[in-house]
Every structure is written in C-alpha cells, then in structure tokens.
C-alpha cells in the first residue's frame, strides 16, 4: 500500500497539480491586491467615492452608524455584506479572464510548435544496419 502511494505521488500529474495549487494560491493573493488596492478605488472614484469593501446592510442587531464592515461583524449583528460579494465577483472575473488569456496563449504556443514540427523537413535517413552489412559483405567478396 505504501509503494502504491509513493507511485501515485511520484506521477507527473500529481506533482503538476501540486505546483498549480501553490501558484494558484500565490496568484489569488496578487489578484486580491489588484482588486482591492487598484481596481476598487478606480471604480469607487468613477462611482463617486463608493467603497465596495465596507458596503453592508444591518439585518438585525446594533451597529454604530458609519462603522466599517469588520466593526459590524465584531459587534455580533447580522449583516448582509453585499460589498464583499461584489469584490468577490470582481476577483472571480479578473481571475477567469487571466486564466482564459493564459490558456489561449499556451494553446497558441502549442499550435505554433505543432506547425513548426510539421513544416520541418524530415532528416535524411542513413542506411540501415542490414544495408551496411550487405555493403561490407559485397566489398569483401569483390576483394577476395
């Protein structure tokens, strides 16, 4: 059973998946920063200073007027944090677009590689081992 597990882990697909997950986690942090630090402020500026990250509605409970989302959550009130949802949707759309562009680029590169392989002239083949041996035999017969 341990040998089977080692064989499973050693397969290329599992290692590729592990690398993909690690890179995906790092990429998520980058996209999160891109959305919260660059895109949301621009959208807020265009919409008149709106900050999505702190948009919520108090469903029940007491929250001080003008309190941020974290303060509202810490107060124990039931809140409807639609701003966090909007931010998550923006994150998803950006990640989906970047993954789309990445897959498109990889496919384009693979197509170019395939075309180059198909267009490359086939290297001339030398004589086979049997042909060389027959030629040596004929030369030896002619001498002897």
Structure description:
The longest helix has 38 residues, at 82-119. With 144 residues, the chain is mainly alpha-helical. The mean pLDDT is 81. The chain is elongated and about 110 Å long. It has helices spanning 2-10, 12-46, 69-74, 82-119, 129-143; strands at residues 57-60, 78-80. The chain has one domain: Orthogonal Bundle (Non-ribosomal Peptide Synthetase Peptidyl Carrier Protein, Chain A), CATH 1.10.1200. The termini are far apart. The protein is 72% helix and 5% strand.
Summarize the SSE layout with pairings:
Elements: H1 2-10, H2 12-46, E1 57-60, H3 69-74, E2 78-80, H4 82-119, H5 129-143
Antiparallel strand pairs: 1-2
Defining key terms:
72% helix; 5% strand; 144 residues; Non-ribosomal Peptide Synthetase Peptidyl Carrier Protein, Chain A; elongated
The overall pLDDT average reads 81
CATH class: Mainly Alpha
Q: How does the overall form come out from the CA principal axes?
A: elongated
Which regions contain 5 or more consecutive residues with pLDDT less than 50?
none
User: How many domains is the backbone divided into?
Assistant: 1
Largest sheet: spatial strand order = 1-2
Which structural category fits the helices and strands?
mainly alpha
CATH architecture: Orthogonal Bundle
User: What's the β-strand tally?
Assistant: 2
Q: What's the tally of helices?
A: 5
Under CATH, the homologous superfamily reads Large-conductance mechanosensitive channel, MscL, domain 1
Helix/strand order: HHEHEHH
Query: What is the name of the CATH topology?
Result: Non-ribosomal Peptide Synthetase Peptidyl Carrier Protein, Chain A
Helix content percent band:
over 70%
How does the major sheet shape up?
2 strands, antiparallel
Distance between the termini: 66 Å
Residue share in β-strands: under 5%
Radius of gyration: 32 Å
């Amino acid at each position: 059973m341990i040998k089977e597990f080692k064989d499973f882990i050693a397969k290329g697909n599992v290692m590729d998946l592990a690398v993909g997950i690690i890179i995906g986690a790092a990429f998520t942090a980058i996209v999160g920063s891109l959305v919260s630090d660059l895109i949301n402020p621009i959208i807020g500026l265009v919409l008149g200073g709106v900050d999505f990250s702190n948009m919520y509605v108090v469903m029940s409970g007491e929250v001080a007027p003008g309190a941020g989302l974290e303060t509202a959550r810490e107060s124990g009130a039931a809140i409807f944090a639609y701003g966090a949802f909007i931010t998550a949707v923006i994150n998803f759309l950006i990640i989906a677009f970047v993954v789309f562009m990445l897959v498109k680029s990889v496919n384009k590169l693979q197509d170019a590689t395939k075309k180059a392989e198909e267009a490359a002239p086939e290297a001339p083949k030398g004589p086979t081992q049997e042909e060389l041996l027959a030629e040596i035999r004929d030369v030896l017969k002619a001498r002897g």
